[in-house]
Amino acid sequence: MVRFDGVTRRFGSFTAVDKVSLDIGRGEFFALLGPSGCGKTTLLRMLAGFETPNEGQVLLDGENIVGVPPYERPVNMMFQSYALFPHLTVAGNVAFGLRQEGWTRAAIDARVKDMLALVKLEEFGHRKPHQLSGGQRQRVALARALAKSPKVFLLDEPLGALDKKLRDETQFELMALQQRLGLTFIIVTHDQEEAMTMADRLGVMHAGKLIQVGTPAEIYEEPKTRWVAEFIGDVNLFEGPITGHSGDLASVDTRVGPLVVGRKAGFADGQKVSIAVRPEKIDIAREPFATSENQLHGIVADIAYLGDLSVYKVRDEHGVIVKASVANKDRHASELLHRGDKAFLRFAPEAGVMVQD
Amino acid sequence: MAKPASYDRWYRRVVIAVPYAWLIVFLLVPFLIVLRISVSQSALAQPPYVPVLDLSAGWQGLKDFVAALSFENFKFLFGDWLYVASYLRSLTFAFVSTLILLAIGIPIAYGMARCPQRLQPVLVIAVILPFWTAFLIRIYAWINILQRDGLLNDVLLALGIIDTPATWLATDTAIFIGMVYSYLPFMVLPLYASFERMDDTLLEAAADLGCPRWKAFWLVTLPLALPGVVAGSLLCFIPITGEFVVPDLLGGSDAMFIGQTLWNEFFSNRDWPVASALATVLLAILLVPIVFYQTAQSRALERR
Question: Which residue range is the domain that position B169 belongs to?
Answer without folding.
Answer: 75-303
